[in-house]
């Protein structure tokens, strides 16, 4: 019985990381998507990049200088500030 439960958990984990096949084309299958959102405020200095996501939940995925991806709700005020700061850094690098 224990072995059967492990299989179910394994399947659920895979479903929670990847979008459903065909939901947004095959390219999205390679990308990790946000399912659960962190409510913790991150240090803006450690954030180097971000991606916007609408499926399966509306979220911003921040990428830290160490390559860690953290999903947060786009509605939080600090998230909007962090996005502006990252955009400013990107604009400065592009000049």
UniProtKB/TrEMBL annotation:
Pfam families registered for this protein in UniProt: IL8
Alphabetical list of SMART domains matching this protein: SCY
InterPro entries membership: Chemokine_IL8-like_dom (IPR001811), Chemokine_XCL1/XCL2 (IPR008105), Interleukin_8-like_sf (IPR036048)
Residue span, Chemokine interleukin-8-like domain: 29-86
GO molecular function, one term: chemokine activity
Family according to the record: Belongs to the intercrine gamma family.
Name assigned to this protein: Chemokine interleukin-8-like domain-containing protein
Taxonomic source organism: Strigops habroptila (Kakapo)
């Amino acid at each position: 019985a224990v072995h059967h439960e492990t299989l179910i958990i394994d399947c659920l984990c895979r479903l929670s990381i990847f979008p459903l096949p065909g939901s947004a084309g095959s390219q999205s299958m390679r990308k990790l998507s946000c399912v659960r959102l962190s409510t913790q405020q991150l240090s803006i200095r450690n954030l180097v990049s971000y991606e916007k996501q609408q499926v399966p939940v509306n979220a911003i995925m921040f990428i830290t200088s160490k390559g860690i991806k953290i999903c947060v709700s786009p509605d939080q005020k600090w998230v909007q500030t962090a996005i502006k700061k990252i955009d400013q850094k990107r604009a400065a690098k592009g000049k």
